[in-house]
Amino acid sequence: MKKLVAILGISLVLCTNSLFANAYETTVSKKISSSFNEYFVGAKDVKWYTDDNQTFTAKFTLNSSKVTAYYREDGSLLATSRFLTGSQLPINVLTKLNKKYADCTVYSAVEYSADDVTVFYITMESKDSWITVKADKEGNARTTKKMKKA
Predict the structure, then answer these.
(1) Residues 84-140 pLDDT 10s
(2) Domain 85-150 bears CATH identifier 3.40.50.300
(3) Closest CA to 94 of 145, 138, 144, 147
(4) Mean pLDDT computed over every residue of the chain
(5) Contact predicate 101/124, CB 8 Å
(6) How far is CA 71 from CA 18, 34, 39, in A?
(7) Over 4-35, what HEC string results?
(8) Which H, E and C letters describe the chain, residue by residue?
């Protein structure tokens, strides 16, 4: 079990590093900064990254959650993502997950929002497997990946 958690953690770090392999820390225009400050009031520890000077990524903490926001060069917000605990999932998502995956518990969750669409990717753990589930705001969920535990 500890071995699998360690492998999952290392995989997450490697994936994150590869996504930002060419990205570098940067400063942003007043237009982007103003848009960000208006939208994410109270954001802390904000760091900006880019790899092409056309899209900009802000990584920060908001209300104890790790959040990432993606902006265009014109200051418009493209998308957001944030890490959640199981208890932070919307109640209708959580109740439907508990019903459909009764033998599993929520291990981690990420909320993605873009173009007024929000989806959740939830990693669930059962006695003998890890399951990744994609759910919408209404709680409609489907398994996207299943791995047996070693």
Answers:
(1) 999 999 999 999 999 999 999 999 999 999 999 999 999 999 999 999 999 999 999
(2) no
(3) 138
(4) 87
(5) yes
(6) 20, 12, 12
(7) HHHHHHHHHHHHHHHHCCCCEEECCCHHHHHH
(8) CHHHHHHHHHHHHHHHHHHCCCCEEECCCHHHHHHHHHHCCCCEEEEEEECCCCEEEEEEEECCEEEEEEEECCCCEEEEEEEECHHHCCHHHHHHHHHHCCCCEEEEEEEEEECCEEEEEEEEECCCEEEEEEEECCCCEEEEEEEECC
Reference 86, options 78, 69, 98, 74; nearest CA is 98
Instruction: Measure the CA–CA gap between 85 and 123, rounded to whole angstroms.
Output: 10
In the chain, domain spans? 23-75, 85-150
- Four-residue CA torsion sign, 122, 44, 18, 53: positive
> 42 is written with which tokens?
């109270």
**Location of structure tokens 């990584």:** 59
